[in-house]
Amino acid sequence: MPPARTIGACMTRSPITVERSATMAHAFKIMVEHGFRHLPVVDGDRLVGLVSERELRVVENMKGIDSAFVTVGDFILEPPYAVGPETPVHDVALTMSQRKVGSAIVVDGDKVVGLFTTTDALRVLAELLAPSSNPT
C-alpha cells in the first residue's frame, strides 16, 4: 500500500488570489489569463471565500448586473472548504466528493498557501494507478 499523502505534497502552491473588493470582471480576467476555474478570495491575507468560473459566468449572464461594478465579495455565500497542508489527501478527496465541491483551499492559519482541485486529484489518482506502481 502506498504511503499516506498530504495535501501539502499534492496541492498547487502559492495560488493567485483576488481581494474581496475586486470586481467580478477582474476576477474573470485573471481566471481566463491563467486558465483557472477556482480563485480564492482574500481580505488582506485572510481567506474569506472562493469564486468559481461557473459562478462568474452566471453573474455575467444575469440581467441588470454589470460584472465591471459588482465585487466578488458580494457573491460569497458560504465559507470555502479549507484544510491545512498536513491533511491527508484521502480525507480531502472524500470530503470534496461528499460536498460536491471542485476544490479545497489549503491554508496555514488564515493565509492561503495552496489549492487542491479535481485536476490535482486526478493527477494523484493517475500516479497511483500507473502500471509501474502496480506490483503484478
Automatic annotation (TrEMBL):
PROSITE patterns (UniProt xref): CBS
Domain of life, source organism: Bacteria
CBS domain sequence ranges: 11-67, 76-132
Keyword Ubl conjugation applies: no
InterPro entries to which the protein is assigned, alphabetical: CBS_dom, CBS_dom_sf, Diverse_CBS-Domain
Keywords linked to the UniProt accession: CBS domain
One Pfam assignment: CBS
Name of the featured protein: XRE family transcriptional regulator
